[in-house]
Each structure stands twice: as C-alpha cells, then as structure tokens.
C-alpha cells in the first residue's frame, strides 16, 4: 500500500459524499465551518459509497483490526471492520471503557482531550487501520497512532472521510500514511 492518498478524482461517488455533508457556520464557535457528517448518514447512497470506498481501499490488505475514534469515527469504522471480517476496537473518551486502559492525551482544533483503548484489544504485531470522520489538526490521529504503538500494534494507515485542509495531514508523522475521501480547503 502506498503512503496514503485519496480517491481517484474521477470517482463520482466522492462528489455524492461531499454534497451530502451539511456545513454549519460558527459552530461550536465563531469562525468554525462545522462539517456535519450526520447528513451523510441520512443519505443511504452517500453512506454506502463512504463505506464502499473504505472497503475497496483495505480489502486484500492484511488488516487485523480497525480502530475507530469516538464518537464519529465509530460510525464509519465499525461497518468497515464487518466488511473486512476483522476486529473492531473503539478508541474512547476518558472514563468510558470498563476494563484496564492505555491512554494518550492530545490537542484538537478547539480542545485538549484524551483517548483510551482497552489493554489487550490490540495485540503486538497486529496490523491496524485507524478510522475517523475527519482530520483537522491531526492531533487525534497522532494520539491513536501512539496508543496502538504502546500496544505493540502496527498502524498500516489512517483513514478519514474528510480532510479539512488545515494542515493536519502535513503534521502527521512519517509512519502514519493517511487516506482521505473528501478534501476541503478551509481557512478556520
Ligand atoms: O484533527 P483533530 O484536530 O484532532 O480534530 C479531529 C477530531 O475532532 C473531532 O472529534 P471531537 O472529539 O471534537 O468530536 P466528536 O466527539 O463528535 O467525535 C473529529 O471527530 C475528530 O475526531
Ligand atoms: N470544522 C470541523 N467540523 C467538524 N468537526 C470538526 N472537528 C474539528 N474541526 C471540525
């Protein structure tokens, strides 16, 4: 698999998905153009295209685990894991997982947060795909990479439905290739 990438420009499914994203200005604060992915979920065609494009990216690769970020990454990661026939691991906000956890702190566009993963969810040597709805600064994806590395896993690639174009992709470490479906150029 190459060092990340995006869907072919001629794939009309991308435009269908992009058109389904509702943009809400000044939420949660002035200046933010909030990309509302719930409207993708309202459109069965757009939702299926999104999952299909992710499946096409990873089927045939040896993926042992899909790890999805709470909350919106869970929505896109779980169906991908089912389609690939592999395990799904939720990366959750602090205090939500009942078992022993590994934890990583990170900074997002408008907050400092922490994500946790169950100890034992990812085994040493397993090949992992990280899934989220979008990348802004890249802080969340970097934290996910660190969590999986702590467990001895090997992150094959990170996948995001949307890249906001805020430079997050450029800030990702060399060993974290990124696959994106919809590329935006926001100037938040
Ligand atoms: O690239 P970054 O700057 O890290 O930002 C991207 C993250 O921000 C959002 O999560 P958030 O926790 O804000 O919202 P959610 O709970 O609705 O998923 C989004 O779902 C990504 O996980
Ligand atoms: N502009 C944005 N829209 C939706 N989710 C986000 N998370 C961080 N920035 C965001």
TrEMBL record:
Gene3D superfamilies in the record: 3.40.50.2020
GO biological process: adenine salvage; purine ribonucleoside salvage
Enzyme class, first EC level, given as a word: transferase
Molecular functions (GO terms): adenine phosphoribosyltransferase activity
Domain of life of the organism encoding this protein: Eukaryota
Keywords linked to the UniProt accession: Cytoplasm, Glycosyltransferase, Purine salvage, Transferase
Catalysis: reaction(s): AMP + diphosphate = 5-phospho-alpha-D-ribose 1-diphosphate + adenine
Keyword Transferase: yes
Signal sequence interval, chain numbering: none
EC number: 2.4.2.7
Subcellular location: Cytoplasm
Residues covered by the Phosphoribosyltransferase domain: 41-163
Pathway listed: Purine metabolism; AMP biosynthesis via salvage pathway; AMP from adenine: step 1/1
Stored InterPro entries: Ade_phspho_trans (IPR005764), Adenine_PRTase (IPR050120), PRTase-like (IPR029057), PRTase_dom (IPR000836)
Alphabetized CDD domains for the sequence: PRTases_typeI
GO cellular component annotations of the record: cytosol
PANTHER family: ADENINE PHOSPHORIBOSYLTRANSFERASE (PTHR11776), PHOSPHORIBOSYLTRANSFERASE DOMAIN-CONTAINING PROTEIN (PTHR11776:SF7)
Quaternary state and interactors: Homodimer.
Family that this chain belongs to: Belongs to the purine/pyrimidine phosphoribosyltransferase family.
HAMAP family: Aden_phosphoribosyltr (MF_00004)
Protein's UniProt name: adenine phosphoribosyltransferase
């Amino acid at each position: 698999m190459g060092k990340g990438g995006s869907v072919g420009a001629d794939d009309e499914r991308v435009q269908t998905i992009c058109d389904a994203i509702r943009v809400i200005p000044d939420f949660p604060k002035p200046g933010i153009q909030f990309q509302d992915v719930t409207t993708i979920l309202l459109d069965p065609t757009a939702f299926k295209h999104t999952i299909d494009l992710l499946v096409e990216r990873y089927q045939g690769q040896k993926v042992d685990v899909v790890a999805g970020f709470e909350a919106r990454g869970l929505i896109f990661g779980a169906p991908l894991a089912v389609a690939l026939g592999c395990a799904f691991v939720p990366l959750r906000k602090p205090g939500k997982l009942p078992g022993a956890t590994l934890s990583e702190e990170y900074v997002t566009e408008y907050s400092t947060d922490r994500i946790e993963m169950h100890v034992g969810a990812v085994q040493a040597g397993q090949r992992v795909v990280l899934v989220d709805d979008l990348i802004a600064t890249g802080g969340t994806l970097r934290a996910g990479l660190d969590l999986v590395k702590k467990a001895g896993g090997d992150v094959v690639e990170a996948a995001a439905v949307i890249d906001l174009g805020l430079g997050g992709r450029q800030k990702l470490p060399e060993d974290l290739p990124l696959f994106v479906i919809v590329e935006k150029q926001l100037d938040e």
